[in-house]
Amino acid sequence: MQRRQVTGLFCEDIRSEKSGAFSLVGIMPDNANIGVAPTSEKRGMFPKLCVYMRAQFDISDQVKTISMSMQLPDGNVLDMGPISADLISKSFAGAKKKGNPLAIIVLRAEFQAFPIISLGKMLLHAHIDGESYIAAQLNLVSSQDEEENPIAEETRQFTHTIAAQPISPTS
């Protein structure tokens, strides 16, 4: 088993449900068409941009620090700050108490009127005890790029039906 696994998503909204679950709305594809390429006179914008990151750790891991940042296409980095040491220790203690093999920490960030300054890759990074992991990527492309490099997408739907069979008593 891997000691650490980190995954993330870019989406339009993250809703907190009464049950404690999160609903991710408008999950973005790897390549987001933003229309016309931004210029110094005209910039694009996401009305709302959210990031969701889930980090899973082997229960024997000794994690001390976790933080999240986003590298923008122009090279600037948005530091989203560290997770408290208290939250990290509570997550590991709770997982151990329940007998879970993994401690899980979820990080979320929400941006209003997020400016699009340039085309290119946005990278969501997890920083764990001095090591960086790429959790997600969002490639901002223009309509012209889309025409030159069409995106191949495939959606598969799996349906599996299990027929209930009576259990015969053994003699």
Main sheet? Answer: 5 strands, mixed
- Based on CA atoms alone, the radius of gyration comes out at 21 Å
Shape: elongated
Annotation field: number of helices:
2
Q: Determine the fraction of residues in helical runs and give it as a percent range.
A: 10-25%
Note the quaternary state here.
Answer: single chain
Helices and strands in order:
Elements: E1 4-11, E2 13-16, E3 22-25, E4 31-33, E5 44-58, E6 66-71, E7 77-82, H1 85-98, E8 102-116, E9 120-128, E10 131-141, H2 143-148
Parallel strand pairs: 4-10
Antiparallel strand pairs: 1-5, 2-3, 5-8, 6-7, 6-9, 9-10
Q: What report would you give on this structure?
A:
The protein has helices at about 85-100, 145-150, and strands spanning about 5-10, 15, 20-25, 30-35, 45-60, 65-70, 75-80, 100-115, 120-130, 130-140. It is mainly beta and about 170 residues long. Strands 4-10-9-6-7 form a five-stranded mixed beta sheet. Strands 1-5-8 form a three-stranded antiparallel beta sheet. The longest helix has 14 residues, at about 85-100. The chain is elongated, with a radius of gyration of 21 Å. The termini are far apart.
How would you summarize this macromolecular structure in one to three sentences?
By secondary structure, the protein is mainly beta. 12% of the residues lie in helices and 47% in strands. The protein has 2 helices and 10 strands.
